[in-house]
Amino acid sequence: MFKIPEHQVAGHKASQGLLGPLIDDSGHFYKPLQSDDRGSKEVAFYNQLSSNTEIPNHIRKFFPLYYGTQHIEASDGSGPCPHLVLEDIVSSRANPSVMDVKIGSRTWYPTASEDYIMRCLKKDRETTSLPLGFRISGFQIYGSEESGYWKPEKKYVLGFTAEDVRVALRKFASSNSSDGLGSEPDCAFAETVYGGSNGILAQLLKLKAWFEDQTIFHFYSCSVLMMYEKEPVLKSESPCAVVKLVDFAHVVEGQGVIDHNFLGGLCSLIKFISEILNNLPHNSAEVL
C-alpha cells in the first residue's frame, strides 16, 4: 500500500531503513511527525492554517492539502507512528522536474536551543542562504526517455556558489539539462516555465504580495517547491508550472510583524528568475 516517494529531492528520505515520508496510490503523502516538538508544531500550523479566515483562497492554493494525522507503519521498521497526511503534489505527473528552495537568510527560529542555532548558522554561512537569502536544497530535471533525470547529490548542491545557483535555475528550464552544470543552459523552456500569467514568476509575485502584508506567521526553514512537466499528464486540469510551500515544523506566530526574513529571500529568488527572463534571446522560447 505504501511506497517511497520517487520524486523527493530534499529532506529526510525513507531509504536503507531510515525514517522518511511515504506515499500511496490515492495521491496522499505521509510525513512522519518529527521528534521533540517539531511534529506537534507542524500539526498545529496546518490546523491553524485550515481554520484561519484571514488567509485568502488564492494563497491557500500554495499549501498542500491537509488531511489530518494517521498512524501507519514507519518506513524504518520501528512500528506504527503518527504521520501527517498531506496532498502528494507530484502524484499526477509522470516525469516532473522539481526544485526545492529553502527560503530565508536565517533558518533558525527565535526560541531554538543554542546548539540548534549554531548548527543552522553554520550551514547558512556555508551555503548561499546568508549571501542570497535562499539556497537550493535539491532538484531533479527530466531530460528525455533516453537520458532520464539529472538529480545531483545533496552535498554537491549544498556546495553551490551564487553563480552555480544562477546556472542551476537556468538549467531547470533548459532542454540540455542532462549535461549537468558543465554546459551552457539553452533556457529553451524558460518563457513557458518561468514567464507568462501562470508561470513560476507570476506565482512567486502573488506570494510576495501576500508576504508584504501578512503578519500571522513567520516561516523559518520553509521551502518553495517549484515543479513542471514537459508533457503534462493533465494539460487541461493543471498549469504547466506549479509553486508550493512545504515544511512548516519551525513556523512561529508573527505577532503583528512582517516576516522580513522570508520576504527578503523570496524577493532574491524572484530577482534571479526575473534576470533569466530578461536575458532570454527573442527566439529562445519553446512550447512544452
From TrEMBL:
One of its GO terms (molecular function) is inositol-1,4,5-trisphosphate 3-kinase activity. Its EC number is 2.7.1.140, 2.7.1.151. GO terms for biological process: inositol phosphate biosynthetic process. Keywords: ATP-binding, Kinase, Nucleotide-binding, Transferase. GO terms for cellular component: cytoplasm; nucleus. It is an enzyme of class 2 (transferase). It catalyses: 1D-myo-inositol 1,4,5-trisphosphate + 2 ATP = 1D-myo-inositol 1,3,4,5,6-pentakisphosphate + 2 ADP + 2 H(+); 1D-myo-inositol 1,3,4,6-tetrakisphosphate + ATP = 1D-myo-inositol 1,3,4,5,6-pentakisphosphate + ADP + H(+). Pfam families: IPK (PF03770). Transmembrane segments: none annotated. Belongs to the inositol phosphokinase (IPK) family. Inositol phosphate kinase with a broad substrate specificity. This is Inositol polyphosphate multikinase. It comes from Trema orientale (Charcoal tree). The lineage of its organism: Eukaryota, Viridiplantae, Streptophyta, Embryophyta, Tracheophyta.
